[in-house]
Specification:
Layout (H helix, E strand, L loop, with lengths): L3 H6 L6 E5 L2 E5 L9 H8 L5 E3 L7 E5 L2 E5 L12 E9 L2 E9 L1
Parallel strand pairs: 2-3, 3-5
Antiparallel strand pairs: 1-2, 4-5, 6-7
Length: 104
């Protein structure tokens, strides 16, 4: 959906890991097919406490094994999601508390 110049400037895929308050958070755009998504992400990010992905615009806040699997949805482009949404992720001393916020 992005302009051609922007697509050309950005990598097709990039995995980013950040550390916040000692917690590692993995990020990627497209987490792949729905079937077995959580297991794939847990295997891909074994040292992370959470992974945040997008692409589907369908919100997800789910604990799977050691990992929070988070998709904030979208505050602007709802597409097939039931509502506009975002996630507020609070991190304190490696403890993560995700909150899905639905927007009017």
């Amino acid at each position: 959906m992005d302009e051609a110049a922007l697509k050309a400037a950005l990598p097709r895929e990039q995995v980013v890991e950040v550390e916040v308050e000692g917690a590692r958070i993995g990020m990627l755009h497209n987490a792949g097919p729905r079937q077995a998504r959580e297991a794939r992400l847990a295997a891909r990010f074994p040292d992370c406490e959470a992974v945040v992905y997008g692409h589907t615009h369908v919100p997800q806040v789910e604990r799977f094994q050691h990992l929070w699997v988070l998709n904030p949805g979208s505050p602007t482009e709802r597409r097939s999601a039931p509502v506009h949404s975002m996630i507020v992720l609070t991190v304190r001393r490696r403890r993560l508390t995700p909150e899905l916020v639905t927007l009017a």
